[in-house]
Design brief:
17% helix, 3 helices, eight-stranded antiparallel beta sheet
Amino acid sequence: MAVLDILTEVAQTGQWGPVVTGADWHEVTTAFGEPWDVGTMSRRRQWPRLFAYGDLELSVCRCRKIVLICIQAWRDVIELPSSTPGETLTFPAGITYQQVTQALDHASCTWQPYPSLTFGDQCALTALPSGANFVFAIAQGTDPVLNVVGLPSAFHNCPAPTRRTAP
């Protein structure tokens, strides 16, 4: 499987394997194994926490539901989890805007430019079926190169109890 096939699947469905906004964390770790625990998203709170399977980064709420998903594509290679727990798929990076739009068009996945994330030295597009945002870095004299893919966060009303401390 090529990385553009994976990115097209994400653009069409909003998920990669068991990873989808709102997914149960146990299902993800069962499918992919234990991730790298990047740490908390705040100095004051333990949750949400950021976990990573290579370049697939997931923000997980204290109720153990996925609340944010992104794929980092700016490194030299893109590493994503395989369907075999603990194994990693490695792909060359440097994916261009033209390659992404051609792959989306070939898969009949509608997309449009995303003006809110297009400024300065970056441009962006949104895949309409999933709302996935593809953000590209623009270096002088080259085609825009994929930097990150992010899936939109859904409203999350966490059912987990909060620990309140007295003032």
